[in-house]
Amino acid sequence: MLFNSIEFLIFFPIVFILYWFFKSSHKKQNILLLISSYVFYGWWDYRFLSLIIFSSFLDFYVGKKIESSPKKEEKKKWLIVSLCSNLGLLGVFKYYNFFADSFADTMSFIGWEVNDLTLNIILPVGISFYTFQTLSYSIDIYREKINATKNMVSFFTFVSLFPQLVAGPIERASNLIPQIEQNRKLNISLIKTGFLQIFIGLFRKVAIADNLGVYVDSIYANSDIHNATTLLIATIFYAFQIYFDFSGYSDIAIGSAKLLGFKFNRNFNLPYFSRTLTEFWRRWHMSLSFWLRDYLYISLGGNRKGIVLTYRNLMLTMLLGGLWHGSSWNFVIWGGIHGLFLSIEKYIFSSLKISTFNVLGYIYTFLVVLIAWIFFRAQDFDTASSIISKIFVLDFGSLFIGNLNQFVNGILLLIIGLMIDLKLFNAKIALEDYGDKYNIVRLSLIISVVILMLCLFYSTTENFIYFQF
């Protein structure tokens, strides 16, 4: 079920009304949330409910065993069970065919032909997100940062809570489980900030991202026939398409959670207003960035074992972070580009004893991110290489516009989106808190304008980009 679908427009109000009907009992609310979350996820394909239920059972049991085990070695064995089981499922469904094809290509290159080793399987939606969420629970118990929950319904709800189930934010057990296990109240602040964030999220996704995507898709589908000017504009459009698409999803998720009495962590903080790539990753997909830092980079040794190993750990973290996004070498290269420039920045900051760049850093950061997005968006390595070669050869010519109305709409909506972000940046206030600035009348007026814009610029595109990851 998609946030921008008619089904969700019917589903959420029903859940909302029933949920607050049981406001005197958070246990009944949790049962309703669990059933509703399984309906939400099973709407796409009910067969994959077995995977999320299995992961929930596994880590609920493993969490208790880790906590109760008297010896460190025994705790580690149970943690390994969780790691191998969860990553094994993720590996089979997301990466098996990728590595099987890569192995076959390698053998073919050296003259050996192998039979087709791929399996006829599809990628379950959201598996990358809920796998990381359950793993963080087991790891935190092992590190003695949290206690294992004794309530199975609470834990299953933590894993499957529908606002963040499919594409995050990746919530930590330390933040979400305590909220699940206590009574929740819906106050005027949550209503105001939640509704505003939901509708801004819908505007970012349905109006801005989807309209930009029409142009991007048409250019990248036939990149070989376009010149550098057109490819560069399409890539710039894509940089904002994926930002508004994914931040829009996060806004709807966080806003919906507020209407259920939950406070999720922030997932985007105006990432294109960054003067360094390091700052960019503190602002972009923050729940994943901090997960990779806390559970991968630090586990590899972080910056505690000398400068060489620090660069190694940084590169490995970004390479694996790229691979997390998809089973393609393009994503690995995308992660490698970020890892390389993050390492260069760390060296420069260490040598010059500075923490950031001047105003030109905004341009540098955006250009690095822009180049990396080409590998993220292109269908394969050859297409990405061709696009980059055309742009850097500086073969600029007249811009291909295509449908003039769609192109103008895309430009207009992008400007509006950037103006909203600029206002938030200058005001130094998060969108998550912005609804509190207005009374109910003014807030209703703002939301009415947003709804009008949604009606005027509605796009037929439905899927969120990060659903494929």
TrEMBL record:
Among its keywords, does the record have Membrane?
yes
**Keyword Nucleotide-binding in record:** no
Q: What InterPro entries does this protein's entry cite?
A: Ac/AlaTfrase_AlgI/DltB, AlgI, MB_O-acyltransferase, MBOAT_fam
**TM region positions:** 6-22, 31-58, 78-96, 117-139, 228-246, 331-349, 356-376, 396-420, 440-459
- Which compartments does it reside in? Cell membrane
The way this protein sits in the membrane is described as: Multi-pass membrane protein
Sorted UniProt keywords: Acyltransferase, Cell membrane, Membrane, Transferase, Transmembrane, Transmembrane helix
**Family that this chain belongs to:** Belongs to the membrane-bound acyltransferase family.
PANTHER family cross-referenced by the UniProt entry: ACYLTRANSFERASE, TEICHOIC ACID D-ALANYLTRANSFERASE
The protein, known as: MBOAT family protein
Q: Which organism is it from?
A: Winogradskyella alexanderae
